[in-house]
Write a structure and sequence with these properties.
By secondary structure, this protein is of the alpha+beta class. The protein has 4 helices and 14 strands. α2 packs across α3.
Length: about 200
Amino acid sequence: MKYVILAISFLVIESVHAQTFITNKKDLDTDRYKGISGSPYLFDDSVDAILLMRDSDEGHTVSLNINLHESEVEVYKSNQYAEIEKSDIKEISLSSEGIEYLITYANGTFVYRIFAGDRYCLFLQPKVIMETIIHRPPGEIIEKERFKRKDQYIINIADESMTVELNKKSVAKALGKEAEAKMKSTKNKIKSLGDFIRLLEALEE
């Protein structure tokens, strides 16, 4: 009987842990950012992810997005969402548009790893700013607000870290002649993040 009670207690505890990330739920508000153009979110839509909390070794499959303006992880269920306590998050793993993300939270900030190889490791530093656009038609002044993305990419090579932009010149400067030759042979013009990651994969071969 003692073992049955222990087993039931364990299941209850696990159930509580499994529900920690969906407490403090709020109704979705479609007018939350009404009148502001652009998006404050990391992804255009919510994505499926594996969320691992610090108090459990069990990952939870959830639908989430990251509000860069509020610096919050939002988990969605039906017509509600919950903001996850950042310090409780161990890691988030997900795939979006062919890119594998490993997201952790340390020292008060999110760390977004988007490529990991033997030679290179690439990190995204996403950022959203809110700016005011002023229009001056005849006889009036119209102010409109918008969210604007300002992302940075950091690449680790051996013990060095450097900022790199998504263009051939910046990538060639950061990675050197081998990368320059590979871009030429594969006709990779580094027009997107996917192009950059394909280059890194080729260099890792």
